[in-house]
Amino acid sequence: MKLKFFAALGLAVTMGSAIVVFATPPAGTGTITGKVTYTGTPPKMKPIDMSKEPTCAKQHTTPVMTENVATGPGNTLQWVVVFISAGDDNPTAPTQAVKYEQKGCEYLPHVLPMQAGQQLQIFNDDQTSHNIHPLAKTNQEWNKSQPPGSPPIDTKWDKPEFIPVKCNIHPWMHGYFVVLKTSHYAVTGGDGSFTITGLPPGKYTVTAWQEQYNSKSQDVTITGSETKTANFVFTATPY
Amino acid sequence: MTLKKFAVTFALGSLVLLGVGATTLMAQSHVNSPDPLLGTPSVASETSQIGGVTGHAADGKFLYRRFCIGCHGPDGNGQGMNAQWIDPKPRDFTEATFKCRSTPTGTLPLDQDLYDAITRGFVTTNMPSWRPLNPQQRADLVAFIKTWSPRWAKEKPGASLNIPPETPITIESILHGRELFQKLECWKCHGPEGHADGPSAATLTDSKGNPIQPFNFSTGDRFMCGDTNRDLYRIFMTGLDGSPMPSFADVIQPNDAWDLVHFLRTLQTALPNQELTLWQAYKAAHGKDLKPIGPDSAGGAQ
Asked: pTM value?
């Protein structure tokens, strides 16, 4: 039973399927799905040299790559947050906390969306000290040390913002907290696809945000229990 | 014809002259207006409370214009005329993020913290000590600085850090502090010997992306936020917001924090101090048994 579960999980991961986040119990039955791709030339992702942190380096058999423009076969883009930027009036944050891990001197996940006011837990699974430094501008920035074996840091963000996160001790560590007004969002997987579910009927603006190429939006109307397609194309530049 | 032409030329000439006069007058009135250079703060008025002294933004405004505007700028954003020549850059008051605080990371400092900063100045930067201004004037400046960000009107400063009495300075305390220096990865930036040459030192930037150097203990420079052992305790507990230096308040117990303070003093080899004397005597006898601080040390992360 357990084995089956892990096998299924492994399959899901290898297929690079979209990570769908159910932040609140679905209030509607409409779905928006699509793919995020690029045209042009994206920068080449580089292997990260972790030799200065042996406890992390030995956790990786192949070098970890930078992820600021993570691409897949067929010009797809990973780590794009697709969310409802207008038309979703649900200001109550879900009670369930979102989790952010530091593991092998990487941020997992690289981009973490959440709702404003939602509880955020930050874990250090490594055998080295990290400092978590969210460079917030609209919210207030802070900077905390988290040595190995420390309890998780419990926090939340009050205002919507795309917040870069870094570790000053391990300068290759970069990630994002994406704080949203809505509970309807998804992050694209390795195949560039996403699915936002649980949408009540209404007129929505759907926005896709990529850390280096900013945002693109389009309007989608949901009339009932239907699935609408919204694809996004970013123009990639090599720098 | 000539009369008519003359009249027209005269009229036109007068107009031009009038125009020049008016422009000169306007320029004159611009210079004499009460705030020719200051931008509009985001909050009209603020006060500060430093002990029994109440500071007023309206009075601080004139002092700011006289003494601070050159670096911190007419809009309080740290982009004054001199800013381009200065490193580290002048503080941007519109963000209300401050390095020297007695309050937790991510919270506003106390009025007293800002007052102390103005009084002390920041060694190794262009910010001088403003002790020549009297306490009322410094309190007024604190009040005015707070008008640059709306956060002061909306939020309260965090709770001031409680610093328990210092533990005795012993070799055990120093040795334990040394272990913490390794375990908490202080050396990754400050360097194994505190020379600011750790493996990550060259990559550091402040929150605005400007390159910044970690503190070099070996020079014997005073610390930016005060030079006593209590100041040192507070600096690493609350962190220096806006810089790569994190807060350790949630992860170090008070006794351990004092141990770290005692060890950090031994890195100040150019500044004679009690801890250093003790440490040098210990090293002379047991130096060979000490594992060096660094990536291969077993004393670090196991």
From this structure: 0.84
**Total CB pairs under 8 A between chain A and B:** 80
Which residues 6+ apart lie within 8 Å of A89 measured at CB? none
How do the domains of chain A map onto residue ranges?
A: 18-236
User: Strand A227-229 vs strand A30-40: parallel, antiparallel, or unpaired?
Assistant: parallel
Which stretches within A24-86 are classed as H helix? 54-57
Q: In which domain, by residue range, is B199 found? A: 171-289
pLDDT tens-digit profile of B22-46? 444 444 444 444 454 788 888 888 9
Q: With left for phi above 0 and alpha for psi between -120 and 50, is residue B223 left, alpha or beta?
A: beta
CB A131 within 8 Å of CB A141: no
Minimal-distance CA residue of chain B relative to A54: B295
**Of A202, A234, A239, A238, the residue nearest A221 (C-alpha):** A202
Q: ipTM for the complex?
A: 0.82
Chain B hits for A54, CB-CB cut-off 8 Å, are 295
> Which residues have C-beta within 8 Å of that of residue A118, sequence separation ≥ 6?
A23, A93, A94, A96, A97, A98, A156
Residue B186 has φ and ψ, to the nearest 5°, of: -60, -40
What per-residue confidence (pLDDT) applies to A1? 45
Q: A143 vs B105: CB contact, 8 Å cut-off?
A: yes
Is B42 within 8 Å of B35 (Cβ atoms)?
no
| In a domain? residue B93 | yes
Mean pLDDT rounded to a whole number for chain A: 90
For B157, residues 6+ apart whose C-beta sits below 8 A from its C-beta are B103, B107, B108, B109, B110, B111
The CATH T-level fold of domain A18-236 is Immunoglobulin-like (2.60.40)
B247 by Cβ neighbours in 10 Å (0-12 / 13-18 / 19+) ranks as buried
